[in-house]
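Reading group handout, session on sequence-to-structure problems. Before we discuss, look at one worked example. The prompt was deliberately terse, the way you'd type it at a terminal:

> structure HAD family hydrolase

The input record follows.
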Amino acid sequence: MLAIRQINVKLLPSVTRVLNELSQEHRLAIVTNGAPNAQQQKINAVNLERWVDAIVIAGHDIPPKPDPEPFERAIQLLNATSATTVHVGDSLETYIAGASAAGLDSVWLSDSDNITEYTPTHQIESIVDLLSFPWIEESPSNSG
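And the output record:
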């Protein structure tokens, strides 16, 4: 049996910078799939809660992404609307498909142009690109 240490995770410096800046002006949420205990250990290991206003762990009490329910739950927790919320993710089949199903604009983090049947609203190559992305000025309340 293989035991994986859930606390052996680290944030890249660029992610820390982006979260520091975005959390100053925007409400942020985490929407993740997995066992609640394991996901919470990873979140705690990098102290993500200092930047986010809501956390939705799907796959146990609610259906996993790409089902729209986890995204809808995050919108409710943020007291936001789908029109004022943007989801950022690196998987077309999970994040972009789920965000689209929930009526959200999406930002796909990828350096590939291999877009499948799920088309993101925007595409970026680096997480730092979120800091100068046009939608930041457009939306009064965003989630991640």
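Points for discussion. First: Residues 92 and 114 are 10 Å apart (CA to CA). Second: The mean pLDDT is 88.
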